[in-house]
Amino acid sequence: MNQSVTHRQIVLLVLLLCITGTLIQPHAQTIFYAEQHAYLSYVPVVFVMIVSLWLISRVQRRFPNQDLFESLVQRFPFLGRVMGFLYILFFFFVFARDIRLAGDYISITLLENTPISIIVLSLVVMGVFIVRGGLGSLIGMAELYVTLFLLISLIIPFMLIQQVNMDNLMPYFHVDVAGVGKGSWYIFSFYGEMIALPFVVKGSDFRFKSVLWGIIISALLMMLILVETITAIGVPIASRLVYPSYELARQLQISDFLDRFDLALAAVTMPTMITKIAFDLYFVCWGLKRMIPKLSGKMMTGPVALVGFVCSFWFFRNAIQLNRFTREWTWIAIVFEALFPLVLYLFLRPRKKVKQKSKDAGKDGEKRRKDSHSGELQPS
């Protein structure tokens, strides 16, 4: 059975899936198109994901004791497995992309002389050990590092007071709607990866209220970071940087005795990125176990991780190609993050016989309770 997940843990997992990749990759492209109103690009993305997750939450309520993989296979043995394998392939690509994205980020910003293959292999090994600990290990790391990331993100605005230039947001009310829409297109594929949660969390634990809180908090946090980036760096520079979030961290300085605060931030963001990579790997292995019951998901972590390591270099030659692929990747991501949830909502329902049996059982139980209650009221 799936491990029970609390309200707080659902919120943190949503933050983990939304923030990690979005913080590194698409912000520069979003600023390039939406300019000073780049933060508004999150509004349509948030709206679409709220609708998608609401639809999935309604589906999960129909199968309270199962995750989405189980309900798909049980209701539609063939087509359910086809859709399950499609999601597995989708997140396997996300896994390969994330380890290459994190490897390039570390290689460019921190370890310039270390071969990127060694960096990526180290990330893969750490991800394997986390996944072998199960969902509990992932949740534990998310509770620690995502919480630290949130605290630091709330402190950063006070450190940037001297570097902030509000004129960079002018004109305030002249919004380029087309540019904002293009910015949303680049953000969507990264931000929408929260769609993975119902596949690993059973229906009774997947509460829409928790997911909604996670979406709202993550969106406000990302909008705050975009505003900080624009006001501290400026649109012309930020739109041409590969990693504007790193440049924003370099602007931080605490008095004269700590001028490399970006290293302290890296100590928090790196474990968060590794946890996200581990979640991608866990999703793939968990899905394989659900699709092929005789297969051991724990034993598959090593082989799947090695295949992902090879594919990360096979799919992307360098960081520039990875950055440019975001535009095309959204066409694929929108199918899994917006279209398939609608299909599941319309067609994934329990069999009528099962529903009728549950109704009959409920009526019998109610009748017994009435009989026992009336028996108690009879005089002796």
Oligomeric state: single chain
**Architecture of the largest domain, according to CATH?**
Up-down Bundle
In total, the number of strands is 0
Number of helices: 17
Proportion of residues in helical segments: over 70%
Class inferred from helices and paired strands: mainly alpha
How does this structure look, described?
Helix content is 75%, strand content 0%. The chain has 380 residues and is mostly helical. Helix 1 crosses helix 13 and helix 8 packs across helix 16 (326-347). The radius of gyration is 23 Å and the shape is globular. The termini are far apart.
Summarize, please.
This protein has 380 residues and is mainly α.
Give the topology.
Blueprint: H1 7-24, H2 27-34, H3 42-62, H4 68-75, H5 79-109, H6 116-132, H7 135-159, H8 177-191, H9 197-200, H10 208-233, H11 235-238, H12 244-250, H13 261-291, H14 301-315, H15 319-324, H16 326-347, H17 352-377
Task: Please give a handful of descriptors for the protein shown.
380 residues, single chain, globular, mainly alpha, Amino acid/polyamine transporter I
